[in-house]
Amino acid sequence: MDIQEIMRFLPHRYPLLLIDRVLELEPRQRILCVKNVTFNEPHFQGHFPDYPLMPGVLMVEAIAQAGGALLLREYPNRDSMLMVFTGIDDAKFRRPVTPGDQLKIEVTVVNWRSRAVKMRGVATVDGKIACEATVTCQIVPRPGAKPAETTPAATEKPTTSLPEAAV
After folding, report:
1. Which of 20, 84, 157, 161 is 20 to 30 A off residue 41, Cα-Cα?
2. Taking CA 136 as the corner, what is the angle to CA 132 and CA 142, rounded to the nearest 5 degrees?
3. Active site residue 43
4. What is the mean pLDDT of residues 46-60?
5. What is the pLDDT of residues 125-147, one digit of tens each?
């Protein structure tokens, strides 16, 4: 999967889209993604000015996004759904990730229920573990989203409680 296809599955966009490519995918089981870490990313301005390090929380987020790319493919109504964190366990940060590194993120499903998934993620640089964590996520309706069959047609006038002149 290239970045265009990833963006069809994930709602994230710059500056928080943290996977660049999917290298391998086994539906409902496993995914391997790549994040190319560049100095142009906004968090490096303050983390840290003299020693730029990718924040650990962003590595965990990259694990969750990789899991999201695996998970959301299974939902035909994914445009009206969001995947949200419900837990992060056993997060460990083993080595720094700096600009120029290529982070490989492998996520394996531990347990998959209808709307909740527990996944184990490992992020490596040059084959060495940089971060690992178990994340649990849940699929929830996107606020304001309506199922496709009940969404008003584009030609219908939206309803509002405001006077006509205020609309």
Report:
1. 84
2. 125
3. no
4. 96
5. 999 999 999 999 999 998 887 76
For position 147, what pLDDT does the model report? 60
Q: Which of 47, 55, 108, 116 is catalytic?
A: 47
Q: How far is CA 4 from CA 17, 21, 64, 126, 159, in A?
A: 12, 9, 18, 26, 34
Q: What is the pTM of this model?
A: 0.85
Residues 6+ apart with CB under 8 A from 69: 1, 6, 9, 10, 19, 22, 25, 31, 33
pLDDT for position 104: 98
Domains and CATH numbers, the chain: 3-142 (3.10.129.10)
Nearest in space to 80 (alpha carbons), one of 28, 15, 145, 126? 145
